[in-house]
Amino acid sequence: MNILSLLHCQEQHCHRRNFFMGFRFVPASDRALILMLLFSSFTLIGQGSENTVHSNTDIEHLDFTVEEATEWTALFNRRSGWFGADGIYAIPLNAKDNEIAKSSTETMFIFSDTMIGDIAADSTLVPGYVMVNNTVAFLNGNEPKEDAISFAWAKDGRGKPKPLFFPETASAEKGDYYWLGDGFLNTGIGNTTYIFAYRMRNLDKNEDWSFKEMGTNLIALPSGSRRH
């Protein structure tokens, strides 16, 4: 199973162009219709598809083992640039979540809080590192090769890292930020990628753990929206 999610952030048709092109916020009036269409798409996929996976639905008696995939851990063990994040999701850009990735598959990863900077030889952080609220990465193929993955984030006018996506809805306030939930690419609605983004706010600027979810936005990334 691919744990994947793709992002886009925008509201009330405010078209922001920092990393992705053409992303847009989905108005509340359209969400019910979109969710209905999404459900219909999933229903059709589950009925009569040759690729349908029939699995054991018994949740009382599970027989499986889990072990670390050290080669994939190593891919994300980095000392410069992007060197750590939480809230990881991944989405195959061919929309085939029910298939094992192939050498031709491109996958987009999204992350929430992300550390960007450098780690010294003694494992201390080099001054100048920052944390931004969301970043992305793209992986070509199905192997954990260093030259197959690229990480990306936005930059401000001075070249300093900043989040790719941030709230601009009518209810958003200065300082609000997005943590990203799961998402998917839907071939039934123009190959648009949808992501659930949690609008967060720190209630006390002196307390890092004072964050609160203020709302959830549905983010849409139209087909063809990519880095530029």
Detailed description of the structure:
Helix content is 11%, strand content 32%. The protein has a four-stranded antiparallel beta sheet. The protein is built from two helices and 13 strands. It has 228 residues and is mostly beta strands. It has helices spanning 28-46, 70-75; strands at 24-25, 80-85, 89-92, 106-111, 114-118, 130-132, 135-140, 149-152, 154-155, 161-162, 177-186, 192-202, 211-221. The protein is globular and about 50 Å long.
Topology at a glance:
Elements: E1 24-25, H1 28-46, H2 70-75, E2 80-85, E3 89-92, E4 106-111, E5 114-118, E6 130-132, E7 135-140, E8 149-152, E9 154-155, E10 161-162, E11 177-186, E12 192-202, E13 211-221
Antiparallel strand pairs: 1-13, 2-5, 3-4, 4-7, 5-6, 7-8, 9-10, 11-12, 12-13
Supply database-style keywords.
4-stranded antiparallel β-sheet; 13 strands; 228 residues; globular; mainly beta; single chain; disordered N terminus
Low-confidence stretches: 1-24, 31-49
- The SSE order reads EHHEEEEEEEEEEEE
**What general form does the structure show?**
globular
Gyration radius, rounded = 19 Å
Number of helices: 2
Summarize the structure.
The chain has 2 helices and 13 strands; from the N terminus they run βααββββββββββββ.
